[in-house]
Design a protein that fits this description.
This protein is an alpha/beta fold. It has helices at 54-62, 88-105, 123-133, 156-168, 188-196, 206-219, 243-251, 277-291, 293-296, and strands spanning 7-13, 19-25, 39-43, 66-70, 115-120, 140-144, 173-175, 203-205, 230-235, 258-263. It is built from 9 helices and 10 strands.
Amino acid sequence: MAEPAPFAIESFQASDGYCLQYRRYVNAATDGRASALAHVVCLHGIQSHAGWYEHSCRKLSEAGFMVSFLDRRGSGMNKEARGDAPRFRRLLQDVAEFLEHLRKAMDPASPGQPIFLIGISWGGKVAAALARFQPRHISGMVLLCPGFCPRVRPPLSERLRIAWARLVSPQRLFDIPLNDPQLFTSTPRWLEFLRGDSLSLHRASARFLVESVRLDRYLKSVPARVHVPVLLMVAGKDRIIDNAATRRFVEKFATPDRQVIEYPAAHHTLEFEPDPDCFLVDLIAWLRQRASPGARS
């Protein structure tokens, strides 16, 4: 008999009526919300989805954390308006409303339980932007190879076509320039997984891609607003993001509690390394320290 899934698939309706799917991990050892160390909310990259990160979510759950992994609208399990989003503020609003939903659902016995955001790749931009857009629910932030400073972008001719389509046909789809699985990992079994993954997003609308650029501009004023603890984890062999520029950006954050960990031999998606537990040990230790009552006080 197959083991039961370590998560439940649940849905959350945004204020504009869009229904977003998410995976909720609860380990029996935590005995529900009240005894969990904290609630961890994960945001995926532009192409990925919650299904890429089952191992890390399971490990976080086993370590005593409540874990919720939200699929971005138009991505992963969310089939409506595939690859599209009306504006970047709507994406921020989705997460802000989701955090409010989780806060209201918390056990009354633990009203002060912290919520930590984990922003992965492009999702790191959304996580950081929440520090300006709606910071009140966030107790800390983990940025896994965040997409603040990308190495990969469409060529100029394609960017011009995207800009024109934004004016005349905003929902027209364009290829996301990350369709080579080797950008994410060199691990053979994960390369095979990526080649056959039906939920990965390979095309995005003109307005989504333009809104991603607008989000980049919004992020320029974010560092002064980041006052919560931040952990930045980067991969030494990352071909998608510029690690040096990313470090410089995070160093501008107002918080005095910043930590950077680099994995020299790793590729962009730390989850897809031969031994992902190497980074998970560091991640769990950081979360436990910041989730402790003494750290919160």
